[in-house]
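Retro notes (design track)

What went well: tokenization of the new backbones is finally stable.
What didn't: we kept losing track of which sequence belonged to which structure.
Fix going forward: every design gets posted as structure first, then sequence, in one message. First example under the new rule, 88 residues:
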């Protein structure tokens, strides 16, 4: 198959994973509760995304770099909301 097909697959995958936490962010803002989130899971995912971003920079792949940068911002937002709406 041609290169454009595989780039399209990569872009679709990146788009889906990049915005996968947006519904969770919306839910936290609406319910003002983060009690059902696992901080360890969020931190682990953030580290993985950060490492993917570094890898993308190393191989100079703009799709990997962009997707993981945006995902990292989304995860940092989610982690911030976790602490804002964490019940004592």
């Amino acid at each position: 198959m041609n290169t454009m097909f595989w780039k399209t697959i990569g872009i679709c995958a990146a788009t889906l994973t990049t915005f996968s936490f947006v519904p969770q962010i919306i839910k936290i803002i609406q319910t003002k509760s983060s009690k059902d989130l696992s901080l360890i899971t969020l931190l682990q995912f953030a580290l993985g995304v950060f490492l993917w971003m570094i890898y993308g920079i190393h191989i100079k792949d703009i799709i990997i770099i962009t997707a993981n940068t945006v995902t990292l911002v989304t995860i940092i937002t989610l982690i911030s909301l976790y602490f804002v709406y964490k019940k004592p």
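Added context from the reviewer: The longest helix spans residues 62-84.
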